[in-house]
Write a structure and sequence with these properties.
Elements: H1 7-45, H2 47-64, H3 69-97, H4 102-112, H5 126-158, H6 161-169
Helix pairs in contact: 1-2, 2-5, 3-4
Length: 170
Amino acid sequence: MPKEPSKAELEARLQSVTEAMNDRFDSLQGEISSTQDVVRDTLAKNPLWSVGGAVVAGLAVGWAFGGSKRRRTQQRHRQLTSAYIDAVRDEVRDAIGKGEDVEEAVQGVLKERVPLVVYDDRSGSGQSAGFMREVVEMIARTAITMLARDVIENVIANANLEETIEDNLF
């Protein structure tokens, strides 16, 4: 039967594990601090990298949220238009197959066909989901704008503009 460790042994193990975790935590903090210094120095020397990084981050967030509502609507409209055109083309082919002249077939199909009307129905249960999506997108856009502004302000505040101008002009 295994012997249970005493209270002193458990406290010693706990103290050992705590010290090891504290050492590892201190080591990680040092690595993060040195990495932060390297990034800050690199961005101070190359301020356009920070602007480029902000643009890339903005594009990534925009892509993650599925793009603009306008683009999604345009895609739905293109699908409807494509289906309409396919139906007209099929009817014209059928008319030509029955021996009609091409011009007469096209005119006949278009005269008998109802014009394409795109109607975006946002009623029902999808309305609240659409509203919530728009709210989340608005909050995300605002947060990204604020973050980009803060990054640009920090870069400008930390950059030595006179030295940069002298380095690039002379």
